[in-house]
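Dear H.,

Thanks for agreeing to be a second pair of eyes. The structure we're designing against is below in token form, covering all 385 positions.
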């Protein structure tokens, strides 16, 4: 309610009690006072709700109407004010009243649109259908075009739809849909950059668009760095910049960004992994050491264990790799990459029967995978099945 609201409400209560004390015929107003007391007691006992609030204001309004004549006689003055004597003042009051009414109506209209926009945004978040979510988000943006979150989430939804279409086989893709979604994303990006440049979400979204739609890592880095100027303690931004520098082949700057991300969030697994893996080509032992240090801090992390197994496998330390792949599966029994790598390790160790059983599990998790089907057939040939 706020301080002013509370004071206004309190003044109405005092006015009602004082007005009752000044009435000559108090008995006829006892039901009204009883109603006020009952409503106030209800508001003390129960959490404020719309029904109680409406009832309170309704009762106060009835009191103002019912006691108007009685109290006006009590406080009547001999010479009443006449608007005919001061027409200019009457005009001024009329203009003020019209402006107040227009302001209230405008406020009510805007508040209604904001509520509708929020309602559609919530529906979009709850929607399991991407097309339905996009429809709700478009309504939110139309009803309230000044909230950056609506536009950024709408852009993300357009982007997801674009990914969905582009991931189809080439013969099934619809070029018109691809172009339409691309244009919608760029349109939202232009609006975000023009009207919402002080928001982190704006530059994050623009960075994603430059990275994924326009294929420009340099411009994506600039966008993410602008986001960092607004939110310097965001480890995700440092991570994305590091990945982009890695794409450009600038490993030193990539590592710097990954280290900054870890300085902000010490247990940021993605930054730890990517930092360690930047050493894989030039110094694999250092990469392993960094991952083993991370494993001490995060002993039950699936990705750290899997990457350690993969690096040991590449170092031809197959038994050690197998132990890490098994630990990975114990943490996540449905991690198909770990099963596949484990099958490859047993195949290298010349244990085809075990490898076949492992690859069958991979096939359960990835039905109709032709590579796995062929691998199983090849191993069957070896064991003579």
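And this is the sequence the design step returned. I haven't edited it by hand at all.
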């Amino acid at each position: 309610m706020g301080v002013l609201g509370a004071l206004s409400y309190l003044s109405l209560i005092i006015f009602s009690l004082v007005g009752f004390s000044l009435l000559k015929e108090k008995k006829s107003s006892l039901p009204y006072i009883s109603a006020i007391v009952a409503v106030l007691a209800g508001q003390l006992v129960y959490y404020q709700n719309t029904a109680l609030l409406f009832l309170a204001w309704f009762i106060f309004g009835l009191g103002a109407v019912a006691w108007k004549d009685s109290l006006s006689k009590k406080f009547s003055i001999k010479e009443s004010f006449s608007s005919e004597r001061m027409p200019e003042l009457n005009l001024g009051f009329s203009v003020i009243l019209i402006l107040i009414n227009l302001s209230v109506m405008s406020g009510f209209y805007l508040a209604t649109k904001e509520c509708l926009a929020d309602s559609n945004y919530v529906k979009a978040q709850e929607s399991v259908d991407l097309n339905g979510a996009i429809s709700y988000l478009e309504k939110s943006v139309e009803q309230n075009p000044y909230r950056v979150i609506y536009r950024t989430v709408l852009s993300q939804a357009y982007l997801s739809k674009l990914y969905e279409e582009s991931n189809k086989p080439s013969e099934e893709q619809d070029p018109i849909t691809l172009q339409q979604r691309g244009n919608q994303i760029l349109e939202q990006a232009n609006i975000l950059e023009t009207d919402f440049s002080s928001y982190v979400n704006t530059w994050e979204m623009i960075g994603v668009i430059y990275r994924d739609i326009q294929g420009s890592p340099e411009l994506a880095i600039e966008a993410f760095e602008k986001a960092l100027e607004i939110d310097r303690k965001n480890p995700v931004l440092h991570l994305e910049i590091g990945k982009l520098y890695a794409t450009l082949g600038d490993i030193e700057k990539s590592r710097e960004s990954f280290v900054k991300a870890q300085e902000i969030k010490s247990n940021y697994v993605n930054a730890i992994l990517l930092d360690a893996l930047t050493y894989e080509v030039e110094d694999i032992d250092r990469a392993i050491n960094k991952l083993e240090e991370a494993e001490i801090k995060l002993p039950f992390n699936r990705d750290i264990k899997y990457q350690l197994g993969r690096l040991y496998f590449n170092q031809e330390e197959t038994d050690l790799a197998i132990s890490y792949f098994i630990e990975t599966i114990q943490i996540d029994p449905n991690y198909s990459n770990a099963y596949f790598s484990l099958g490859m390790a047993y195949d290298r160790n010349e244990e085809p029967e075990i490898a076949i059983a492992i690859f069958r599990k991979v096939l359960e998790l990835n039905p109709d995978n032709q590579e796995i089907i062929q691998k199983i057939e090849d191993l069957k040939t070896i064991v003579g099945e």
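Two observations from my side: The two ends are 78 Å apart (CA to CA). The mean pLDDT is 84.

Warmly,
E.
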